[in-house]
Amino acid sequence: MNPVVEPLSWMLGTWLSDPPGAGTFPTLQPFQYLEEVYISHVGQPVLNFSFNAFHPDTHKPMHRECGFIRLKPDTNKVAFVSAQNTGIVEVEEGEVNGHELCITSHSVARMSFAKEPHVEQITRKFRLNSEGKLEQTVSMATTTQPMTQHLHVTYKKVTP
């Protein structure tokens, strides 16, 4: 592993939602989802990730995103770059402190025919809890709604 990404080594592995994740937003009916997360490295000063969500009953694919997590060398500053199957591309920036990563969107771009309302800002918090499980909370603001929690999921590690 490149030593630059060592502060994020607690995120590495394959993770599965346990229990299913919960989603809500003022313009949506509450929902649940299953999710597989893969976070890996190939020796570069960056982590690779993919998030793959599935319907809990039918197992049909839902949300997908993939990208990279970079650390600014010799700091706790982090950049999270992702592309989503909804047509959104984003750069989020923030800090890692111990086993917690908090990031906020720095830029959000979308394809010209993306569904409305448009996402304008996203925040994420990842943390490794005392049971060794990874938790993620995602909040977002759209063109019609202020910043509101959208997703919360807890993952158990299935491979290192």
Automatic annotation (TrEMBL):
Residues 5-157 form the THAP4-like heme-binding domain. GO terms for cellular component: cytoplasm; nucleus. Its main location: cytoplasm. It catalyses: peroxynitrite = nitrate. In the C-terminal section; belongs to the nitrobindin family. Heme-binding protein able to scavenge peroxynitrite and to protect free L-tyrosine against peroxynitrite-mediated nitration, by acting as a peroxynitrite isomerase that converts peroxynitrite to nitrate. Therefore, this protein likely plays a role in peroxynitrite sensing and in the detoxification of reactive nitrogen and oxygen species (RNS and ROS, respectively). Is able to bind nitric oxide (NO) in vitro, but may act as a sensor of peroxynitrite levels in vivo, possibly modulating the transcriptional activity residing in the N-terminal region. This is Peroxynitrite isomerase THAP4. It comes from Suricata suricatta (Meerkat). The lineage of its organism: Eukaryota, Metazoa, Chordata, Craniata, Vertebrata.
